[in-house]
Predict the structure of Single-stranded DNA-binding protein.
Amino acid sequence: MNALRNKVQLIGHVGNDPEIKTFDGGKKLANFTLATNESYKNDKGEKVEETQWHKLVAWGKTAEIIEKYVTKGKEIAIEGKLTHRSYDDKNGEKRYITEVVVNDVLLLGK
């Protein structure tokens, strides 16, 4: 059951061109967002569509694949894990971030 702990799988559309950073030694980091959509019918029988936005980060070879093939609007499937972190902004206020660290990416669509 350990393989199922903290596992995230999402299919959606990329919200922005990935931001790629290259560190000393050549290791890469990709930051981007993913939109997932869900639709249902409300009490009045009307179709309601909801979009959820997810912050994604990828490192190393996964970031290199994202850099080469992933662009805004592309449909992808990802697998990774949820992480939480905090930092102090320039005003000294504590900020919290939840993001998905991507382990695998699958390119979908055209």
